[in-house]
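Q: Please design a sequence for this.
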């Protein structure tokens, strides 16, 4: 996941899921929206999907994070 900051808010794109992105006014809001975006992107009708986003690690001006997806 690559996180960008623009005009005081944040948006993130999931590198391995083309077209999957989220935005938020704070990092906490972004993480909540990103979790929902990944869940929606990967879910299939009738499936149970749980997404956890790992620890945030800053890399220069962009931020990279790990994401673990558990499918049940």
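A: Design:
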């Amino acid at each position: 996941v690559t996180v960008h900051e623009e005009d005081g808010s944040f948006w993130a794109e999931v590198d391995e899921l083309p077209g999957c992105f989220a935005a938020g006014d704070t990092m906490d809001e972004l993480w909540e929206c990103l979790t929902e975006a990944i869940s929606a992107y990967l879910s299939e009708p009738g499936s149970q999907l749980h997404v956890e986003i790992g620890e945030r690690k800053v890399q220069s001006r962009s931020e990279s994070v790990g994401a673990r997806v558990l499918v049940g």
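Q: Thanks. Anything notable?
A: The beta strands are 2-6, 9-13, 21-24, 49-59, 62-71. The chain has a mean pLDDT of 76.
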